[in-house]
């Protein structure tokens, strides 16, 4: 079992969980606990994952591992105060008990410093509020804290009984300030003192004494853990688990005897089941999109250059070009694009001897792709590729061991029928063979040297319209000539 630095006499059951954590402690102590002997009280603290067991691990969590203690995060602790009870007789002669905290003597000055660094809503400090009570005989900083009110709200207004209302944000800040003060002197929590419960998603720490503790996540790399997974279709994902925020928490308070100060912070925070950890969890998923360039006959074209730009997040809804002219207008307005993408806001790729190229490392968002360099051979500039690529990020697996998946769609802005498998709106859906998800299934786009090479079907059937236009134009010319000839005959 872990030994506290200087075990003191026993004190209030405060279980404050602070510093990015939901507030709370562990209740349900041993019902045989002696209210006059706090040494008989439970000596454990339980942390609960907010989402996944993965939050407690530094490598990919395996629920079937033979040793669930392997690769756990590293934790340290400081015992800040002991519990103390004072007995009295109730109205019917029944015994009642008041709970208070006794600060570990060696920790007093550091705790006062932490108090001074917590700013309240009125721009005063927690330290100044504490100092105002020193003249009233309360010199122990944590004894004072345990007699105040805690709230999930945002107001520090005094309650009717004159107690300070300490907000959740203040409590979180206090835990962070305490970490700053004690980080270099905290003791390690060894795996021998940790119990893992994968069904409840909890870690339980066992200490030598009951009392108020500060729990610190000391995992290397500033507590940041990256879990990377490789998905289908060339996608890679990284789920980043940040450092678990520092926790100010007490061991459980017994529930089988009457407490005279149930509204004090110490008591209210000590009577909950477990403390849910808080940490930042973020996902960065990236994918690779594959392309192929061919001529009208399907022969691979080398040397085509394509440029990709990522649309700014706040421009996604408005940037939606529907034809060549609107695409070119959007493309020439640099304010539409994310300058941090690629090199100065763009990336280039060129088709190889097999006509293939790809864009890698694409995260969720909307992209415009433009064929900025045609291959040699007299290909028409008007039919250089202009595409909208949309990359979607899907939900993560519910076990937290892998990042979300990613998918994408491509739209031919020209709707020319030159993008293989595109529908009448120029869209290639994920169910199509040429869906850009692998080197074997690239998005395939054709270059043409003459409009007669436009597909007769697919896209908008533009070739048919051109042929029809030529026929109609020729017919109109014949009619015009015949009309003039008839008019001359009538005037003769």
TrEMBL record:
Give the InterPro entries listed for this entry: LPXTG_anchor, SpaA_PFL_dom_1
Where in this chain does the entry annotate a coiled-coil region? none
The signal peptide, as residue positions, is 1-29
* Keywords tagged on the record: Cell wall, Membrane, Peptidoglycan-anchor, Secreted, Signal, Transmembrane, Transmembrane helix
| Transmembrane intervals | 462-481
The segment(s) forming the Gram-positive cocci surface proteins LPxTG domain are 452-487
Q: Where is the SpaA-like prealbumin fold domain?
A: 288-383
Entry-linked NCBIfam families: LPXTG_anchor
What is this protein's record name?
Answer: LPXTG cell wall anchor domain-containing protein
């Amino acid at each position: 079992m872990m030994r506290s630095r200087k075990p003191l006499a026993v004190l209030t059951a405060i279980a404050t969980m602070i510093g990015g954590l939901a507030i709370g402690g562990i209740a349900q102590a041993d019902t045989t606990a002696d209210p006059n002997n706090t040494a008989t009280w439970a000596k454990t603290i339980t942390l609960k994952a907010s989402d996944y067991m993965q939050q407690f691990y530094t490598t990919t969590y395996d629920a079937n591992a033979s040793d669930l203690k392997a690769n756990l995060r590293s934790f340290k602790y400081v015992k800040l105060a002991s519990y103390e009870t004072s007995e009295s007789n109730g109205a019917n002669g029944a015994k009642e008990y008041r709970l208070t905290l006794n600060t570990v003597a060696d920790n007093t000055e550091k705790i006062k410093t932490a108090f001074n660094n917590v700013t309240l809503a009125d721009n005063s400090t927690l330290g100044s509020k504490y100092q105002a009570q020193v003249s009233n005989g309360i010199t122990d900083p944590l004894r004072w804290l345990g007699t105040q009110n805690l709230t999930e709200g945002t107001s520090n207004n005094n309650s009717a009984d004159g107690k300070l209302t300490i907000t959740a944000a203040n409590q979180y800040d206090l835990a962070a300030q305490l970490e700053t003060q004690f980080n270099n002197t905290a003791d390690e929590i060894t795996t021998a003192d940790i119990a893992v419960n994968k069904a409840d998603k909890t870690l339980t720490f066992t200490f030598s004494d009951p009392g108020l503790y500060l729990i610190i996540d000391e995992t290397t790399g500033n507590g940041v853990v990256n879990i990377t997974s490789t998905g289908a279709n060339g996608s890679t994902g990284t789920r980043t688990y940040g450092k678990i925020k520092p926790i100010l928490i007490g061991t459980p308070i017994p529930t089988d005897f009457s407490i005279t100060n149930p509204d004090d912070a110490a008591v209210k925070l000590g009577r909950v089941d477990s403390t849910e950890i808080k940490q930042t969890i973020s996902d960065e998923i990236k994918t690779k999109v594959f392309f192929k360039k061919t001529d009208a006959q399907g022969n691979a074209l080398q040397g085509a250059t394509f440029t990709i730009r990522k649309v700014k997040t706040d421009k996604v809804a408005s940037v939606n070009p529907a034809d060549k002219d609107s695409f070119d207008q959007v493309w020439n307005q640099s304010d539409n694009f994310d300058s941090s993408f690629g090199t100065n806001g763009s990336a280039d790729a060129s088709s190889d001897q097999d006509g293939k190229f790809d864009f890698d490392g694409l995260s969720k968002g909307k992209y415009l792709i433009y064929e900025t360099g045609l291959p040699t051979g007299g290909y028409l500039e008007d039919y250089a590729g202009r595409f909208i690529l949309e990359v979607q990020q899907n939900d993560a697996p519910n076990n937290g061991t892998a990042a979300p998946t990613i998918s994408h769609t491509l739209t031919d802005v020209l709707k020319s029928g030159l993008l293989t498998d595109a529908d009448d709106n120029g869209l290639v859906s994920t169910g199509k063979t040429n869906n850009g998800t692998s080197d074997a299934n690239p998005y395939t786009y054709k270059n043409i040297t003459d409009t007669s090479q436009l597909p007769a079907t697919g896209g908008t059937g533009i070739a048919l319209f051109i042929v029809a236009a030529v026929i109609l134009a020729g017919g109109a010319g014949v009619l015009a000539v015949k009309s003039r000839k008839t008019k001359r005959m009538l005037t003769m």
